């Protein structure tokens, strides 16, 4: 379906609990290995079911700081009290790649001139987002309010993106992302 000889990057952002990880994972599975995830480094603790070198590269603060001092990250940020970074080496691997970053990451990538398709995944409403965060049951009430405030900021920054997907139906959101990726690749030929 896809021409793996071409290098292409799809940068996806979404508020917490908007469904970006689920959508990305399902699409990678559907495409049978032609689309690869760029794994982000983080100092946060893994959530239940998350796997090192699959979901994130979970690093100690010391390891993260060592990589930061070495200039190994093309982009890095502190989010919700944790550190995140994208390694130059991972981003420069050949092929079709997808990476999940926050809106600060989008701004940093654009400032650095990273050639990519920038995609925002949003819930149908902020109330739905809050319900998803509550259902996830991984954040304190204070963290939920912080994440809701960040989601409002991301909505205000929607002009940074090439495409916006509203995730009110998971299968339709997956189809929309696949259509965007296929269309962008076809347009580049």
List the helices and strands and how they pair.
Layout: E1 8-13, H1 20-30, E2 35-37, E3 41-42, E4 57-58, H2 61-69, E5 73-79, E6 82-87, H3 88-91, E7 96-100, H4 103-112, E8 117-122, H5 126-136, H6 141-156, E9 163-166, H7 170-188
Parallel strand pairs: 1-7, 1-8, 2-7, 3-4, 8-9
Antiparallel strand pairs: 3-6, 5-6
Structural features, described:
The protein is of the alpha/beta class. The protein has a domain at 8-38 and 93-182: P-loop containing nucleotide triphosphate hydrolases (Rossmann fold, 3-Layer(aba) Sandwich). Helix content is 42%, strand content 22%. The chain has seven helices and nine strands, in the order E-H-E-E-E-H-E-E-H-E-H-E-H-H-E-H. It has helices spanning 20-30, 61-69, 88-91, 103-112, 126-136, 141-156, 170-188, and strands at residues 8-13, 35-37, 41-42, 57-58, 73-79, 82-87, 96-100, 117-122, 163-166. The chain has a five-stranded parallel β-sheet, sandwiched between helices. The protein has a four-stranded mixed β-sheet with strand order 4-3-6-5. Strand 5 (73-79) and strand 6 (82-87) form a beta hairpin. Helix 1 (20-30) crosses helix 7 (170-188). Residues 1-5 have low confidence and may be disordered.
Give a summary of the structure in a few sentences.
It is built from 7 helices and 9 strands; from the N terminus they run βαβββαββαβαβααβα.
How far is the first residue's CA from the last residue's CA? 14 Å
> How helix-rich are the residues, as a percent range?
40-55%
The description of the largest β-sheet is: 5 strands, parallel
Low-confidence stretches: 1-5
Mean pLDDT: 87
Radius of gyration: 16 Å
The counted number of beta strands is 9
Name the overall outline. Answer: globular
Beta-strand residue percentage: 15-25%
Structural class category: alpha/beta
What is the CATH C-level name of the domain at 8-38 and 93-182? Alpha Beta
CATH homology superfamily of the domain at 8-38 and 93-182: P-loop containing nucleotide triphosphate hydrolases
- CATH architecture of the domain at 8-38 and 93-182, please? 3-Layer(aba) Sandwich
How do the strands of the widest beta sheet line up side by side?
A: 2-7-1-8-9
Task: Note the total helix count.
Answer: 7
CATH topology of the domain at 8-38 and 93-182: Rossmann fold
């Amino acid at each position: 379906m896809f021409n793996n000889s071409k290098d292409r990057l799809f940068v996806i952002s979404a508020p917490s609990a908007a469904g970006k990880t689920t959508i990305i994972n399902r699409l990678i599975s559907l495409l049978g290995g032609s689309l690869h995830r760029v794994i982000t480094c983080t100092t946060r603790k893994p959530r239940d079911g998350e796997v090192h070198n699959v979901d994130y590269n979970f690093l100690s603060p010391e390891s993260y700081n060592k990589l930061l001092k070495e200039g190994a990250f093309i982009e890095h940020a502190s989010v919700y009290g944790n550190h995140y970074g994208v390694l130059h080496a991972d981003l420069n691997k050949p092929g079709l790649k997808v990476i999940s970053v926050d809106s600060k990451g989008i701004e940093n990538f654009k400032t650095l001139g990273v050639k990519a398709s920038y995609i925002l995944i949003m819930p149908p409403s902020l109330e739905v987002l809050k319900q998803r965060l509550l259902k996830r049951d991984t954040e304190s009430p204070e963290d939920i309010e912080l994440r809701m405030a960040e989601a409002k900021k991301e909505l205000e920054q929607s002009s940074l993106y090439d495409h916006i997907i509203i995730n009110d139906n998971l299968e339709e959101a997956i189809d929309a992302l696949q259509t965007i990726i296929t269309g962008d690749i076809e347009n580049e030929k």
